[in-house]
Structures are given as structure tokens and as C-alpha cells.
Write a sequence for this structure.
């Protein structure tokens, strides 16, 4: 079946819907608007200096390759928008304090990308000054901690099976170990080279760089049937996960990063899980799919009190869309896990794509909603 070719068109429609939703009017809060012109040769910002506060970047890809856009402070990514198709525009809202930053476009979504520095000046009240949003950050950090507490032993069980050359057990443990990583992937991706080291797919690494992590081992398990030389890969995976745990426990987050993270997890589903390319050897994509949805829901749940106060209708739409997608995903359960992705019919894939699209649209509005003033401050 030519599922990937057909589903890529679905992905484009989902990405466009999310991008259009993210450009909705910003509820009255002061926002700095920056347009970004991206191509294979350029990453041009409309301004090089903006005022502190919420900054909305509208990124238009005029090139021929899919691109992505990041906002960095030093080597830490504070926000990103992925899978910007050619001739489309998507947006990203980030809360920035005074300092030096860099916008980075990555044509083809590989390599170091093209950098454009900019400066943020002045001061603005932090969104976290709102008690509900401050609580949201604290609650979401607790969720992150709970997930890395599960990730470490699950990964160790998997890598122990690799070191023992136990292919059958390693296959059994692969999807579960990765699921804890998938729930927190937007945060993991913010720590420089750790995400590629842990989770890069074949072809996503730079030329000459070693391919490590879950997917390198996945190929050896399901394609080569030989993990006799994978002890070093297993050791490195354990070390990289341990480094991730330390960074996650100390991470400083802002409310908009939580909202953007929920959207990024939906983007993950729409781009790599729906196509079946993420776990292309094991076909365990639905485990990742479920983990991304769970992570997105945890982010929204952390923001729930603030979002309900600012836009109860949007909160209701998000909840309804989550329920529909979760119910549909549950029909593909098998034992403690899910059916293999390549066992789904074209109709089932299309139904999942439609449900993801239905959730992506309201999720894309959450960042703007929580950065809007509360009703009490506008009266």
C-alpha cells in the first residue's frame, strides 16, 4: 500500500490547520509580532530588536524544503515550530525577557540551520505572575519528573536485554521504554544534542555523525536480527537518559512553553506517527502516538485552571477533541499495548489523521488564550 505518500497529504492539511489556528487574534494582550522569511538560503527576521513580553513569530517558508524554526537563548531552545511546508506560514509565540537570542531556520530539518540574532529590551510582567499560570508550571514540572522517574528503569531494562543479547526481550521492552520519552519530547528537544543522540531516526543525523539511540538499536533488532555489537549503544543510551533526567529536574519553564509543547506533541503525531516513519522497523508507532497524546493532555491539564478562566469554550473544545481521539485510539488496543501500525487499514489511518486534525485546531489556540488578560483584568 502507498500509505506514506497518501498520508503525507493528510499531514500537510493538519499542519496548515494548526498554523492557521495559531494565527488567531491574540485576545487583547500586547504582543510583539515578528515575521520570518525562511528558505534554503535565508532566515530573515523583520526586526532585530523587540520589547520584552510575548513575541509572536510568523514563519513563512518560501523555499522548496520543509523547514522548522527555533528560538534559542545560548544553546537552549525556548520554542520551536516544526514541519513548515513550502509556501506555508506557521506561527510560534514565546515569552522573552531582556537579553540576546537567536532565531534559527533549519531547511530540510537537519543540521545547525541558518541563524539570525535578535535582541529583547525592556521589561514586562511575567505570565507566571498569574497564580494559576505559576501553579501550572509547578504542576507540569511534577509531571515531567514522574515521567523521567519511569523512563530511567524502563530504559535500563531495555538496555540490559541488549547487553544480554536477548533479542526477544529487547523487542518486548522497546515500545514501553520509548513511550516515557515520547511524553516529554518537547522538553527533551530543548537540550541541544541530547534528543538526536537518544531519538534520531536514520538519515536525521548530520553527515559523519554517529547514529545512536533507540532507533539505531531498533533497526538492529528488527532488520538485522543482530545486537551482538550494541553494548556500547546501550551504554550510551543509559548515559544520555541519565543526563536528560538531570536537565529535566532543573529545567526552568514558562507557561507558553507548556502550551507550545502540547502543540509540538500533536505535530509529532501528525508528521511521523501518522506516516508510520517513526518506528519504521518495529511498527510500534501507536505506542508513541498514545504517549504523545498523553503528554499533550498532561500539558493542557496543567494549564486547565488558567485556560478555563480565560476561554472556557476553548477548554471544552480541547476536552471534547481529546476524548474523541483517545476513544478512537483505544479501538486499536491489543493486550497491554497496541496493534502494529502496518496492520491498520487505509480507512483506519485516515480516521486517526482526521481525529488528530480535530484536536490540532483547538490546541493551536491555547498559547494565545493563556497569554491573554484574565476577565477580571479587562473589566
Amino acid at each position: 500500500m502507498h500509505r506514506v505518500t497518501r498520508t503525507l497529504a493528510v499531514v500537510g492539511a493538519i499542519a496548515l490547520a494548526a498554523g492557521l489556528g495559531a494565527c488567531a487574534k491574540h485576545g487583547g494582550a500586547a504582543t510583539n509580532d515578528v515575521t520570518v522569511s525562511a528558505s534554503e538560503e535565508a532566515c530573515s527576521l523583520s526586526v532585530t530588536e523587540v520589547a520584552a513580553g510575548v513575541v509572536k513569530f510568523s514563519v513563512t517558508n518560501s523555499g522548496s524544503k520543509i523547514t522548522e524554526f527555533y528560538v534559542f537563548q545560548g544553546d537552549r531552545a525556548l520554542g520551536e515550530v516544526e514541519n513548515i511546508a513550502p509556501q506555508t506560514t506557521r506561527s510560534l509565540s514565546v515569552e522573552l525577557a531582556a537579553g540576546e537570542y537567536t532565531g534559527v531556520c533549519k531547511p530540510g530539518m537537519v543540521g545547525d540551520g541558518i541563524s539570525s540574532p535578535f535582541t529583547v529590551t525592556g521589561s514586562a510582567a511575567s505570565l507566571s505572575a498569574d497564580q494559576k499560570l505559576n501553579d501550572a508550571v509547578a504542576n507540569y514540572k511534577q509531571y515531567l519528573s514522574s515521567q523521567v522517574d519511569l523512563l530511567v528503569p524502563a530504559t535500563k531494562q531495555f538496555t540490559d536485554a541488549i547487553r544480554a543479547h536477548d533479542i526477544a526481550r529487547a523487542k518486548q521492552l522497546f515500545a514501553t521504554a520509548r513511550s516515557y520519552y515520547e511524553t516529554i519530547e518537547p522538553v527533551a528537544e530543548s537540550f541541544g544534542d541530547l534528543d538526536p543522540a537518544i531519538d534520531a531516526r536514520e538519515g536525521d543525523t548530520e553527515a559523519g555523525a554517529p547514529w545512536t539511540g533507540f532507533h539505531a538499536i531498533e533497526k538492529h533488532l528488527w532488520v538485522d536480527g543482530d545486537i551482538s555489537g550494541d553494548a556500547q549503544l546501550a551504554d550510551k543510551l543509559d548515559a544520555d537518559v541519565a543526563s536528560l533526567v538531570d536537565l529535566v529536574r532543573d529545567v526552568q519553564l514558562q507557561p507558553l512553553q507548556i502550551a507550545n509543547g502540547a502543540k509540538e506533541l500533536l505535530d509529532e503525531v501528525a508528521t511521523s506517527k501518522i506516516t508510520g516513519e517513526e518506528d519504521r522497523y518495529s511498527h510500534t508507532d501507536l505506542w508513541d502516538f498514545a504517549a504523545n497524546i498523553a503528554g499533550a493532555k498532561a500539558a493542557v491539564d496543567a494549564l486547565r485552571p488558567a485556560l478555563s478562566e480565560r476561554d472556557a469554550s476553548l477548554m471544552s473544545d480541547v476536552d471534547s477533541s481529546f476524548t474523541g481521539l483517545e476513544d478512537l485510539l483505544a479501538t486499536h488496543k491489543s493486550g497491554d499495548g497496541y496493534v502494529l501500525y502496518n496492520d491498520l487499514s487505509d480507512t483506519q489511518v485516515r480516521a486517526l489523521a482526521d481525529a488528530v486534525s480535530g484536536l490540532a485546531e483547538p490546541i493551536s489556540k491555547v498559547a494565545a488564550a493563556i497569554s491573554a488578560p484574565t476577565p477580571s483584568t479587562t473589566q
